[in-house]
Write a structure and sequence with these properties.
five-stranded antiparallel sheet, binds zinc ion, 373 residues, seven-stranded mixed sheet, globular, 18 strands, alpha+beta, 24% strand
């Protein structure tokens, strides 16, 4: 049986250059992204008994843990058992598995969200409604979670996947919402005193297509917070903030993943706000999160990237704002607004997986709960 490799799967992406016996030559397909980016995700069939070798013609196409592998059609993922981070290639034993999925990092698509929703089916503390319809006609889900009976409570807004490829952000958001729905004291307290508005997959079309999404021409979803947004999701999140959130809004978190590897890409951090009041609230939240964290992924408040340093130097007077900038300027109340960067693979020496990312999401929930005490 020949080895075949394709991308006809949710979040599939690659330019397959050649398949020669056990060797696959490929590179990420940047599509409408304006600079090299690194998301790729393929299905390989006819694998059984082979040692596959994947060789990338573009640098920076692998994390420091190499690639993620699934032998059950994307249900569960593991990082490569062995990988030399000096090279843009890896080998993997297929064993008895005929089909493998291989990706830059564990993907998260609508299928994952639907599986999570099914696990909470019938829970009165969780509802789903359409946020809007995407350009390609998809219904983009808005989840409401926590106190839903109209009683007085705090509000929080949670978003992920303004950049389609940043899949670990959605795994973390799942964990955060799991904590709100949990049977423990934190869950009970959050359901009593908070209402969460969550958009787990903002760029629904880009996520299903396997787009990079980041730096999409002419600008990406997170650069679309203007007076005239070009994406329906961005316009809908602005309308949500203007029409359904009010001065009870306490927290607005936007979850991201950084660049593929290296400095500022291998620890979890808040992107510091140029707004002095929000910067102060961010530092308070960071300190609380460091204190209440129990999950395996390390988090240090002093990892926060202050505005004006490294890549965090965007012009604060630009009319094209990020979600967090826009929320800081326009959302009601005086919420703690923060963009988080969660690495794809390595957070301070601990491997990021769907499970550890979810645990970090539960840590975020604990920190939110602490704001009430
Ligand atoms: Zn991002």
């Amino acid at each position: 049986l020949r080895l075949t490799v394709d991308t006809d799967i949710p979040a599939g992406n690659a330019i397959i250059e050649a398949v020669e016996a056990d060797l696959v030559r490929l590179r990420p397909d940047v599509r409408d992204t304006t600079e090299p980016w690194f998301w790729w995700h393929v299905r390989a069939r006819g694998c059984a008994g082979r040692r596959l070798r994947l060789v990338f013609s573009a640098p920076n196409s692998l994390t420091v843990r190499g690639a993620a592998v699934s032998a059950d059609a994307g249900l569960t993922w593991a990082w490569l058992p062995e990988y030399d981070p000096a090279g843009w290639e890896f080998s993997v034993e297929a064993g008895r598995h005929d089909e493998l999925r291989l990706a830059l990092a564990p993907p998260y698509t609508r299928e994952n969200l639907d599986r999570w929703l099914a696990g909470h089916d019938g829970n009165p503390a969780l509802t789903m409604q359409p946020l809007c319809r995407s350009r390609q006609g998809r219904s983009v889900p808005l989840l409401r979670c926590g106190r839903l009976d109209g009683a007085e409570c705090r509000q929080a807004v949670l978003t992920a996947r303004h950049h389609a490829c940043e899949s670990l952000a959605s795994w973390a958001l799942e964990g955060l919402l799991d904590a709100v729905l949990a049977g423990d004291a934190t869950g009970e307290m959050l359901r009593q005193r908070w209402q969460f508005f969550a958009v787990p997959i903002v760029d629904a079309d880009g996520v299903e297509a396997g787009d990079q999404g980041k730096r999409r021409a002419p600008h990406d979803h997170n650069g679309d917070y203007t007076d005239h947004p070009i994406y329906p999701e961005t316009a809908a999140i602005q309308a949500l903030a203007r029409q359904r959130l009010d001065e009870r809004l306490t927290v607005a978190l936007d979850l991201h993943c950084p660049w593929v590897r290296g400095h500022y890409n291998e620890h979890i951090y808040i992107v510091g706000s140029p707004d002095p009041d929000n910067w102060r609230r961010q530092q308070q939240f960071a300190a609380v999160l460091e204190r209440v964290r129990t999950g395996p992924l390390p988090y240090r408040a002093d990892g926060t990237l202050p505005y004006g340093q490294a890549w965090n130097v965007g012009d604060p007077s630009s009319p094209r704002m990020s979600c967090s900038r826009w929320m800081t300027a326009h959302a009601p109340g005086a919420p703690t607004v923060a963009s988080f960067e969660l690495p794809y693979a390595n957070a301070g020496g601990v491997t990021v997986t769907p499970e550890t990312a979810r645990a970090f999401g539960r840590d975020l929930a604990r920190a939110i709960a602490e704001l009430d005490r």
